[in-house]
Give the backbone structure.
Amino acid sequence: MKYSVVAAAFCVATAGVAQAEAVKPMSVSFTDGAVENSLSGQAGDAVEGRKVFMNRKLGNCLACHANADMPEQPFHGEVGPPLDGVGERWTVAELRGIVANSKEMFPDTIMPSFYRDTGYTRILEKFDGKSILSAQQVEDVVAYLLTLQE
Ligand code: HEC
C-alpha cells in the first residue's frame, strides 16, 4: 500500500518534468514581430511540422503559399509568397513570431494568427477560445520551415 502511493507520486512528478509548461497564447511576448523562446518549452520536430503545414484542418499553409518541397500536394495557393528558402530569409525567432501571430510582423496581413485564442476577424465556432495550433505544433512548423533552404 505504502509503496504504491510512492510509485504513483513518482509517476506524476516525472510526467510533470517531461511535459514543460506551454506559454499561453495571450502571454506570448513579441519583439519586433519575433518570439525568442520556444512556446512549448521543447524543440520542434520538423517531420511533424511538415504534416501540420499541409494538413488542411491545421496549418493549411498551402491554401496561400506555394512550397516546392511538397510537389505531391495538389493545390498551392498564391495569396502569400512562395515559402521556398524561407529558412534562410528569417531567423527561428522571426519564423516563430510569424506563425504564432503574423500581425505582429505584418500588421495588415490576411495570414491567420495560429497561436491566438481571441481576436479573429472571422471566428469559426469550433475555434472559439482555442488557438488553431498548439504551442508544440507551432514549434514543429517552425522547425520544418527552417529546413526550407534554397
Ligand atoms: C490566408 C492566407 C495565408 C495562410 C493560410 C497562411 N499564410 Fe503565411 N502569409 C500570407 C501572406 C499574405 C503573407 C505575406 C505577408 C503580408 O501579408 O505582407 C504571408 C507570409 C508568410 C511568411 C513570410 C514569408 C516571406 O518569405 O517573407 C511565412 C514564413 C509564412 N507566411 C508562413 C506561413 C505558414 C507556416 C502557414 C501555415 C501554418 C501560413 N503562412 C499560412 C498568407 C497566408
